Amino acid sequence: MKAIIPVAGTGTKLRPHTYTQPKALIPIAGKPILAFIIDEMLEAGVKDFVFIIGYLGEKIKDFVEKKYPNINAFYAEQNSREGIGHAIWHAEMFVKNNEPVFIALGDSVFDLNLKEIVSAPTSLLCVKKVDDPRAFGVVEMEEKNGLIRRLIEKPLIPKSNLALVGLYKINESTELFDALSYLIQNNIKTRGEIQLTDALMRMIDKGVVFKGYKVNNWFDCGRKESLLETNAILLKKYGARQLPSLQLENSVIIDPVSIAENCKLSNCIVGPNVTIGENTTITSSIIKDSIIGSNSTLDNVLLHHSLVGNDAVIRGMSQTLNLGDDTEIDMR
């Protein structure tokens, strides 16, 4: 089985952070989003990975090669972004004839039993009930046996509140790539893009059996608000993390907090629900419900519900921020 992880998107909803780093490498609860996905896959026994890269793709490759040198990693480049289906299609050259594939979108984190999904005899599409399904691929499923009868991408009038959550286990990979090729060759698009949902529906029409697998916890990290919410949930789940290299002077930490290597806190109150990257110095500040990047300097600030990138410098302010990498603000 191969895992296919599309990480070619530009992450427009997380700008300015995604101007300088891929969305999948933004840290939550002490490690990048992509690391959560890979770690879960490895735990389930998956060791072969195909990453669909594009925008800032070299940073994805550098991260994977440094952090996971022992996995079998392959890279396919999506030069023109024409949808998730178009991205997945680029992985075909790395997948053997009808080799099962596990597709995980690179901006979501899941809390479920991947081993159970991997070992299932049929193809599975992970689904969850949502309040407003119009922003998702919508699933019409038989409750009795879990068989999926219909899929439609972002319908104006949904007939179900079951949404696809971006995790797919597909045994019939040859049929999948045939369906994607058909959409591409005939320029069949929904909302201007080649949709994976449309390819799956074509497979169902041709007799491929899919069942729905209901997930309890699914964290969409594509927006600032959901990213900070996910950070808080995962910090509570995995607990506080403070390395011995932390220099702590006259400061209070309110768990859960994750603090990376070689950080220094002086005259601070930090937490709850805060993630701090490595080599960051914070003085005379109060920070809660926030993510602070690596190699940053914060002095005399009061931050809450904030997202601060790497190599940022902030002095003397009290605000809610969405501040990208390599930024300096001085409001003293």
Number of helices: 7
Strand content: 25-35%
Helix content: 10-25%
Oligomeric nature of the chains: single chain
Number of folding domains? 2
Tally the beta strands.
28
Give unreliable regions as ranges. none
Describe the structure.
The chain is of the alpha/beta class and 332 residues long. It folds into two domains: 2-226, Spore Coat Polysaccharide Biosynthesis Protein SpsA, Chain A; 239-330, UDP N-Acetylglucosamine Acyltransferase, domain 1. The chain is built from seven helices and 28 strands. The longest helix is centred in the last third of the chain and has 15 residues, at 224-238.
Summarize the SSE layout with pairings.
Elements: E1 2-6, E2 27-28, E3 31-32, H1 33-43, E4 48-53, H2 57-67, E5 72-77, H3 84-89, E6 101-104, E7 108-111, H4 114-118, E8 123-129, E9 137-141, E10 148-153, E11 162-170, H5 173-185, H6 196-205, E12 210-214, E13 217-220, H7 224-238, E14 241-242, E15 247-249, E16 252-253, E17 257-259, E18 264-266, E19 269-270, E20 274-276, E21 281-283, E22 286-288, E23 290-292, E24 297-304, E25 307-308, E26 313-319, E27 322-323, E28 328-330
